[in-house]
Specification:
elongated; mainly beta; 8 domains; Jelly Rolls; 6 helices
Length: 1157
């Protein structure tokens, strides 16, 4: 189903500072409301269809702007992880999918044969054997014999128990009984150690001397409610050679007169026991416990899967239960895996269990309807690895619930989960539906039900077999016990379950027994004969046990239409398989070749074509990185980033499929189609470099791209968008490493630049993470840089040209990289100057580091005419205030932009109510004295608030206290005060760490700007460094603050204000000349030249040199003279970054970073 909703209307967005004209068509796409919806689990905006202006509407647009507005969640939290804004800096792509209407298919290949579910060239396997090949494990036991022994039979009651009443009937089981201290005393245990035990009932079951083993425990409890697991007091591993039912202990059992005795029997037989007689014994309520094992289990070691015939399970519609026993392999868990997954015909997930994912969370996905329902929760390590546990996963659409059960008890649940199930075409156990993300561990008793089992049913039957007493017996679809099919030599029946790979069935150890646990039948405790006497070590006993060698799958595949499927499945053993005799620790004692009939397989390749599909071209419109969201607020109206997407105007027509945003924040996205004449018409776009490229292989994967102009195409632009990611080794590439990017045209280098982007001056601050760190082409909470390269002068008139993109090599990291060529017609206008943006005054949050202002307004203009722009006229002013004019002169080529400061001395710009909205209006015209050919882009306006007004009551004071507490790197901090004309009124630095400085200034009435700078780019307080904390406040003399600056500000923080007072300072104000410091060469081998200017001649100048950790390395004093040039020798210091600080007598300072190579 295609979702389409849009809103088209003409309006003027008066609060935006990007220049618009009233004739603008708006297209609303994603909205906050659609995403802020608990019914959809606050899902990502995702891939959706929207209606855009018709391609045949005869309208032209001078530009198209995309308004990308983010705000924090209102009801839920981002990803349900507890934060209103998402915690991390995630990549966010905005894609357009162009449905071309053309059909295509892919030429595909597949191996004719797969052995062990893998491709091969040739292989030989033994496929016919007399019996299943086995390895032999040779056990060696200590053996003890009795001498001078006497026996004492336990008193036997009137009860006789039938062993056939045991609920486990496999070849393996575990039983425990307890005799209380009172019973031991009655049996005469005082002072007589027992050195042997005899149970006549097992005499006939001892096929091997270690088939029945005993453990004995002393316990403080005289009853059993489960298996006792205390320290072992004595044991017996083999039966007595002269008496099969008798067992000699490895240590005498000496009773202390108080403890209770727990006796344990471990039975490890070759097949289920056949008892020759009933047990002689007595009822002993609460003194017995037993459990069996479920036969065999499957061991998945990777690249194994059990395929389920989907006809068996496609009755599932609105309810399901998946349950199994598992024990993950600790060597590998947790890792990304699926223990089972079912896919529909569109390769979409219907059922999946990540068990767990690499983050230790278990995910249960069930039901697809545009997305799958999911619940998940972090698990304890011992719940998914190293121990046997039962898990059950249920979903009931009728109640819209999903649940996960652990060992029969509810472990996690979720509501509002109502996606129905569709038919599946694949269902795999041991991996995902595409045979990847292998599960590595042990699995048994895999069941699947066409019902959501009730909690009581899960609890009652999770550790026992299903029989007719089960309340959902008729709903059982899969009941896979993982026993080997001796006809196939593999797990499965070859009809409904098919084994691929070489997953082997293994027998349980008796000590692992968990099947059908509970008291012995009727609570019977058998009669035992106890032996006393002397036990002496005899010759050791050697017992051999065999383990079947798992067979390997041999699958023959064939083409069926537009797909391949296996048509035969057999099993065999690689011809080089060697049978071994080994010790339990793995030491090989002997080897034997594999006997049988061998078959050689020579592989070839099947070729076929995929199902035809529509050609859909993906274009990236923009890229954004989400901010660190802990503690972040984006206000009720959100933050808006504006992207110029005019180069995609030909694609933004009619019905358009877009993909944007993610689940980190709420997204509102709209497009402004500004009517008018564009600078040039877009003819075509070619998107060719697109995707993720590792730096180590970038040159091999991002290669020359050839472009052939078509008729009517005369101008060309290359657009690139690169953001570096990954770090942690080497140079911390690509996210944090400096490297050079370059563009070649026709093989010749034309542009080269350093990719690293300054992040400490980001408008969106402070953020919850390391937002200040410079990154490769991006910053958290900011757009990713798009580079536009004008190719026209380099390729004009050529039938074909090529472009190439290079990045400095590094073995680590990757780039998300896009490359597009835009073809245009000739310029549409000779003379057109456009106001692109009002930078100040403005309430645009992206310009909030500078706004509100005292200074003159600043706008950005662009030359849209083909002629070089050398002059234009401005008219501007505040609504209700004076109108000013200004003539700009310069040199601006076609499509070049420049920021223009517009002189304005009307105090209404900054003096007045700072809570009311004020309108600034500006108009530009007369480019080069000519008539502007597109007047609709000549005007712009912005709404803004004035600077705050600060004053004392009755305006009777004019003092301001600059109150700064330094952190541990005081030299990084400096402050300055400027007047409305940009003149320096006062500045200072701070020489001492962790110290409070108080400077009192007397100010005349006027508008000022106060700025706190930090040369370390980490503000006065930042959580991820060792600089400590500091702050700066502008305080009133009588107490209270004019302002308390946010200390986590990165590079600088600035506030303009109007100071109102009746007092006038009559002291002569000496002008403070600007000072400068130039260090060269930088970087160098350690000897730097320092050129200083603007300092007062004849005065001393203090200098200090710090290392990157803020430690003072050296200091000194220079005498200032005209054109001072001073040498600084750091050649004896290690390679690194250093800071040079200079102070003059007025407390002013300059800082420079030095890099010693």
């Amino acid at each position: 189903m295609r979702l389409a909703f849009a809103l088209l209307f003409s309006a003027l967005l008066s609060t935006q500072t990007f220049a618009q004209n009233p004739d603008t068509t708006w297209v609303q796409t994603y909205t906050w409301e659609a995403q802020n919806n608990p019914a959809t689990a606050y899902e990502s905006p995702g891939r959706r269809w929207f209606d855009f202006p018709a391609s045949d509407n005869d309208s032209t647009y001078q530009k198209v702007l995309m308004y990308y507005n983010l705000k924090c969640f209102e009801d839920g939290t981002a990803g349900n992880l507890g934060y209103a804004c998402g915690e991390w800096d995630y990549l966010t792509y905005t894609y357009l999918f162009d449905h071309t209407g053309m059909m295509d298919s892919n030429s595909l290949t597949h191996p004719h044969w797969l052995i062990d579910d893998l491709d091969f060239v040739s292989d030989t396997l033994v496929t016919e054997v007399a019996q299943v090949p086995v390895d032999t494990v040779r056990w060696t036991y200590s053996n003890y014999e009795l001498s001078g022994a006497t026996s004492s039979g336990e008193a036997v009651g009137t009860f006789t128990a039938a062993p056939s009443e045991l609920e486990w009937e496999s070849d393996c089981g575990r039983m425990q009984w307890v005799w209380s201290a009172d019973e031991l005393e009655a049996l005469g245990w005082n002072g007589t150690p027992s050195v042997g035990v005899e149970w006549p009932a097992v005499a006939s079951l001892v096929e091997a001397r270690d088939a029945v083993q005993w453990n004995f425990y002393w316990s403080a409890a005289d009853s059993l409610g489960g298996f006792y697991t205390g320290p072992i007091a004595a044991s017996s591993k083999v039966s007595d050679a002269s008496a099969p039912g008798r067992f000699v202990l490895d240590a005498p059992l000496e009773w202390d007169g108080e403890s209770h005795l727990v006796v344990e029997v471990l039975m490890q037989l070759d097949e289920a026991p056949v008892w020759e007689a009933d047990w002689a014994g007595e009822e002993a309520p609460q003194k017995t416990w037993q459990a069996g094992t479920a036969g065999s289990y499957v061991h998945f070691d990777g690249n194994d899967r059990i395929e389920v015939a989907v006809d068996e399970i496609n009755v599932i519609d609105d309810a399901v239960t998946v349950e199994f026993w598992s024990r993950g392999t600790p060597e590998f868990q947790p890792e990304n895996n699926s223990i089972c997954e079912g896919m529909n015909a569109d390769n979409q997930r219907e059922i999946n269990i990540h068990f767990p994912w690499s983050n230790g969370r278990i995910y249960w996905d069930a039901g697809f309807d545009g997305g799958y329902d999911r619940i998940d929760q972090a698990a304890e390590t011992n719940q998914y690895e190293g121990e046997w546990h039962h898990w059950a996963f249920t979903k009931d659409v009728a109640t819209a619930t999903m649940a996960i059960y652990f060992d029969g008890a509810l472990w996690h649940s979720g509501t509002d989960k109502d996606n129905l199930f569709g038919d599946m075409v694949r269902f795999h156990i041991g991996c995902n539906g595409n045979s990847g993300n292998d599960y590595r561990g042990d699995v048994d008793e895999f069941r699947m039900w066409n019902a959501a089992l009730a909690p009581t049913a899960v609890a009652e039957f999770f550790n026992r077999s299903v029989d007719e007493s089960h309340p959902n017996a008729d709903d059982l679809l899969i009941n896979l016990s993982m026993d080997v099919n001796l006809e196939l030599y593999a797990i499965g029946d070859g009809v409904t379950h098919f084994s691929h790979g070489n997953a082997g069935a293994k027998k349980y150890e008796a000590s692992e027994a968990f099947w059908h646990p509970g008291a012995m039948p009727q609570g019977v405790r058998p009669s035992l004969i106890w032996w006393s006497g002397d036990a002496a070590a005899a010759d050791s006993v050697v017992v051999d046990h065999v383990e079947a060698i798992p067979a390997t799958s041999i699958a023959e595949w064939a083409v069926q239409g537009n797909a391949v499927t296996w048509e035969s499945l057999e099993y065999g053993w690689p011809a080089e398989t060697v049978r071994t005799t080994r010790t339990p620790s793995g030491e090989v004692l002997a080897t034997y070749p594999l006997a049988g009939s061998a078959t050689e397989y020579l592989n070839d390749t099947l070729t076929y074509f995929s199902v035809p599909f529509e050609v859909v071209d993906r274009y990236e419109l923009a890229r954004y990185i989400t901010p660190y969201g802990i503690g972040l607020t984006l206000d009720d109206d959100g933050w808006t980033w504006v992207f110029d997407v005019s180069d995609y105007v030909h694609l933004l027509r009619d019905s358009v499929e877009l993909q944007a945003g993610n689940w980190q924040e709420l997204l509102d996205m709209k497009f402004a189609f500004v009517h008018g004449t564009p600078p040039r018409d877009v003819k075509r776009m070619d998107a060719f470099w697109k995707g993720q490229y590792g730096l180590s292989t970038f040159d091999g994967n991002v290669t020359d791209h050839a472009f052939a102009p078509q008729e009517g195409e005369s101008m060309f632009r290359l657009k690139t968008r690169a953001s570096g990611h990954g770090f942690g080794s080497g140079n911390n590439c690509a996210e944090f490493c400096y490297n050079t990017h370059s563009v070649k045209v026709n093989g010749d280098a034309q542009w080269s630049w350093e990719i690293m982007r300054e992040c400490a001056d980001n408008a969106l601050y402070p953020q919850g993470g390391t937002w200040i760190y410079d990154r490769a082409g991006w910053c958290p909470g900011a757009v990713v840089d798009t580079k536009d390269f004008e190719l026209t002068p380099l390729v004009a008139g050529q039938d074909e040209f090529s472009v190439d993109y290079d990045i400095t090599y590094d073995p680590d990291g990757n780039y998300r990289f896009e490359g597009q060529i835009v073809a245009y017609g000739e310029p549409n206008m000779t003379y057109d100057v456009e106001i692109s943006q009002i930078l100040s005054p403005s309430d645009d949050k992206l310009e909030s580091r500078w706004n509100p202002i005292c200074e003159s307004p600043t706008v950005r203009i662009r030359n849209n005419g083909s002629q070089l722009l050398t002059t234009c006229q401005f008219s501007y002013g505040i609504e209700g205030g004076a109108t000013a004019t200004y003539e700009w002169t310069g040199n601006l080529a076609f499509l070049e932009s420049v920021e223009v400061e517009l002189p304005y001395d009307d105090p209404s710009l900054y003096e007045g109510n700072d809570e009311e909205w004020v309108l600034f209006e500006v108009e530009v015209n007369q480019p080069n004295g000519m008539v502007d050919e597109e007047p609709r882009n000549n005007k712009a306006s912005s709404r803004f608030h004035r600077v705050p007004t600060w004053s004392y009551p009755d305006l009777d004071d004019n003092r301001v206290i600059i109150w700064t507490k330094t952190n541990q790197v005081a030299w990084e901090t400096s402050v300055e005060l400027l007047d409305a004309q940009g003149n320096l009124v006062w500045e200072r630095g701070y020489p001492t760490a962790n110290t409070t400085f108080k400077d009192t200034l007397s100010l005349n009435q006027g508008c000022y700007r106060f700025t706190v700078n930090d040369v370390g780019d980490d503000g006065q307080s930042f959580w991820a460094n060792s600089d400590g904390s500091g702050y700066t406040r502008l305080k009133k003399v009588a107490g209270g603050n004019f302002i308390n600056f946010e200390p986590d500000f990165g590079r600088y923080i600035s506030q303009a204000f109007f100071f109102q007072t009746n007092l006038v300072t009559v002291e002569e104000e000496l002008p403070i000349s600007p000072v400068s410091m130039v260090v060269f060469p930088n970087p160098s081998d350690g000897v730097f030249q320092v050129s200083l200017g603007g300092f007062q001649a004849g005065k001393s100048l203090d200098w200090l040199c710090y290392d990157a950790m803020g430690r003072l390395i050296n200091s000194g004093e220079w005498q200032v003279s005209s054109g001072l040039l001073q040498s600084l020798d750091l050649s004896d210091l290690p390679t690194g970054t250093y800071a040079l600080i200079c102070y003059d007598g007025q407390g002013r300072k300059l800082s420079k970073w030095l890099q010693k190579q």
